[in-house]
Amino acid sequence: DPGTGSAGSSPWLGALAERFAQLRPALDRLDQHAGDGDLGTNLAGGTAAAARAGVAGDLPADLRVLADAFLDSVGGSSGPLFGLVLRHAAAALAQDGDDPARALADGLRAGLDAVREAGGAEIGDRTLLDALGPASYDKDRPRRHLDAAAVSAALEGARRTSDLRARRGRASYLGDRALGRPDPGAVGLAALLLALHEAVTG
Ligand code: ADP
Ligand code: MG
Ligand code: MG
């Protein structure tokens, strides 16, 4: 029904938007410490826009909607970069439906490369790559699945950004002032990976 603007909403996108609405104040506070204070608002805005897009889809369709919402309606660094990761995740999932956790691992690795290319940052620069990298590789070995170990590694990687000095993004202007708290984008990315893991494990 085009009149209502909603063709039946996706429960996974709705739950994701709810979770990022809850994380919003904490992520904004982290970004106040090292940036301009809008990371929580940006991630809450992107997920809410996706939930409003109102598809009752499978996970690949939901991820495409989510990627488009970030690319089309979220600014800053997180809009295009989260959008890029999500687009690669969605594409891999669409290609390999047999084993979604394996497809997501492949897609996230492609997303990692795309973000490095687009943003010029490397792992260790105190960005979302410090969550995405450990989720994609175990030491130097590609992870085969987005499993619990990959999610734990992402959360641990995000935690460790507290000790990293930023070399990219706004936080790089602050020198040591950003130390002592984690990078908000890394925390947000780890939260997204947890939600993706939940989606494929039920
Ligand atoms: P802005 O600084 O434009 O307000 P956001 O607050 O939306 O951007 O996003 C900030 C997050 O983006 C940072 O916490 C960091 O994780 C990530 N980020 C910033 N620059 C880069 C980059 N070049 N490569 C990867 N991630 C980046
Ligand atoms: Mg910001
Ligand atoms: Mg901003």
In whole angstroms, the N-to-C terminal distance is: 30 Å
Question: Which ranges are low-confidence, i.e. pLDDT below 50, for 5 or more consecutive residues?
Answer: 1-6
Write down the Rg. Answer: 16 Å
**What is the oligomer described by this structure?**
single chain
- The SSE order reads HHHHHHEEHH
| Residues in helices, as a percent range | 55-70%
Strand-pairing-aware structural class: mainly alpha
Would you give the CATH topology? Serine Threonine Protein Phosphatase 5, Tetratricopeptide repeat
Number of helices: 8
Strand content: under 5%
Assigned CATH class? Mainly Alpha
User: Which of globular, elongated, flat, extended, rod-shaped describes the shape?
Assistant: globular
User: What is the CATH architecture annotation?
Assistant: Alpha Horseshoe
Bound molecules: adenosine-5'-diphosphate, magnesium ion
Largest beta sheet: what is the strand line-up?
A: 1-2
Largest sheet composition: 2 strands, antiparallel
Number of distinct beta strands: 2
Number of domains in the coordinates? 1
What's the pLDDT, averaged over the residues?
A: 92
